[in-house]
Design brief:
221 residues, mainly alpha
Length: 221
Amino acid sequence: MTENDKLDILYKYQEMDELSKEQIKQAIRLTRDKSSLVRLEAAECLFQEYPTTARVLMRLAKDRNELVRVSAYETLGLYSSEAVEIFLKNAMNKERKGLALSYCIGAWGDVAVVRNNNLREKLAYLKQFEKKRKVQKSDKCILSCQTIKYLMGDKDALEKLLKYVYHPDFHLRICAIEDLEYICNDDNKEKIILYLKKALNDPARAVSLLAKKYIEKIQNN
């Protein structure tokens, strides 16, 4: 198969709600492809827990390509085992690239929140971790920390997260809007909608359109 043939298969898998055992096995085989793009897309297809998928994703989370690691971290965030939580926590300490680290932080937080045990201790750990230089020099990492801190019960983190709607980098404004939609609940809905309405006038069309989309989604829920 050509690279495009492999990608076409993986893109189809990503659009499916559930994969068969054979499709999962096919995606796993493609995680060893020489193309980093194929490995990246294959990682996104392992969203179902299967006897070997967590182990495969942990291997991809050590890939030499940062974007492959990003994809692996993000997919591991859908899992809920203690082994995955421990792996991601360790990966946070080892990861050196800012973008990958931000996704690793987010994935660890998602798994930790779903597991819902010792959240006070984990929040205290994250507050210490975010002081690390490698976190502080990446606004994307700081944003991920604020989002996870809020999900772990730190209500003060919301104010810091809201400020990212005005960040100079429009990519981070998009990330902030996505995170605000993710953490939205009955307690913070009004404040989040207020900031999303301000983003409707954003000079970047991608930002304003996303804000409009999420305002409608939140209001209709």
